[in-house]
Design goal:
Keywords: Amino-acid biosynthesis, Histidine biosynthesis, Hydrolase, Methionine biosynthesis, Multifunctional enzyme, NADP, One-carbon metabolism, Oxidoreductase, Purine biosynthesis. Pathway: One-carbon metabolism; tetrahydrofolate interconversion. InterPro entries: Aminoacid_DH-like_N_sf, NAD(P)-bd_dom_sf, THF_DH/CycHdrlase, THF_DH/CycHdrlase_cat_dom, THF_DH/CycHdrlase_CS, THF_DH/CycHdrlase_NAD-bd_dom. The protein contains 10 helices and 9 strands. By secondary structure, the chain is an alpha/beta fold. The chain folds into 2 domains: 85 residues, Rossmann fold (3-Layer(aba) Sandwich), CATH 3.40.50.10860; 119 residues, NAD(P)-binding Rossmann-like Domain (Rossmann fold, 3-Layer(aba) Sandwich). The protein has a 6-stranded parallel β-sheet. The chain is globular, with a radius of gyration of 18 Å. Bound molecules: 5,10-Methenyltetrahydrofolate (GUE). The site of 5,10-Methenyltetrahydrofolate has 19 residues, from strand 4, helix 6 and helix 10.
Length: 280
Amino acid sequence: MTARILDGTATAQALLDETAERAAKLTEQLGRKPCLVTVLVGEDPASVTYVKMKGNRARKYGLESRRIVLPETSTTAEVVAQVEALAADNTVDGILVQHPVPSQVDEPAVFEAIGAAKDVDGVTMASFAAMGLGRPGFQSCTPGGIIRLLDAYEVPLAGQHAVVVGRSPILGKPVGLLLLERNATVTYCHSKTRDLAEVVKTADIVVAAVGKPELIRGDWIKEGAVVVDGGYNPGNVGDVEYAAAAERASWITPVPGGVGPMTIATLLAQTVDAAAARVG
Ligand SMILES: Nc1nc(=O)c2c([nH]1)NC[C@@H]1CN(c3ccc(C(=O)N[C@@H](CCC(=O)O)C(=O)O)cc3)C=[N+]21
């Protein structure tokens, strides 16, 4: 079998176009554009690139984007104070704190300061709980983008064995919750998993969410399985050995052009949702 492509660029485009239309209508109602603020602590080059991409795309589709950069040496209290100020600012609809923050900063504490109403990146405990309980709320952007992509191609989820490789707070754990909510049978694998290859071989759907280039080998993929590569590694290499996996999978996400564009489109869609909720 040769896999068909889950085209994240095209699917994201449709969501971005719809988001731009909603943003334009809201701009009239609010008297200002829906506003996303990104907060970057430090100057990690990859993070700088991602944050710029998010800001540029926001502007292109009719949102306002503000970028805040704090020094690499910031304390938790300093970053929390900045985020709290944004949470209290009526001209701000959504806040994204770029992960990872420097090690001296308590990232979960900073995420909590966003508050549920502006958590368009889906990283607070309240958003996580909502994802787990199937309640309305903002989804973590990459997991939410993955589900939107699978839905766009009508990939069935109910009853499928989904194997999530990785358990990070903003990708692996929440994507498993969303798949469970859609009635998949979910297995989480991680660094302590005894025989990763054997578990992946049983998957109908594999979600790679580790950040280790080509960790998932092509010959682990069951014939006809669906492969979602959520890995972002330097040089646009995914977590999956793409060419070999594509020979066996029924559907596969490319890197680039798969999960990444869906992540950003979901972020912007949720920012417009947050702005809409303020209008009431
Ligand atoms: N609080 C937080 N939320 C995030 O959502 C978040 C984060 N922190 N930290 C870093 C990761 C990474 N991430 C990406 C988003 C889009 C692409 C993307 O669109 N990539 C393009 C390629 C870009 C290129 O060509 O360089 C693609 O896959 O087609 C990649 C990576 C969001 N993240």
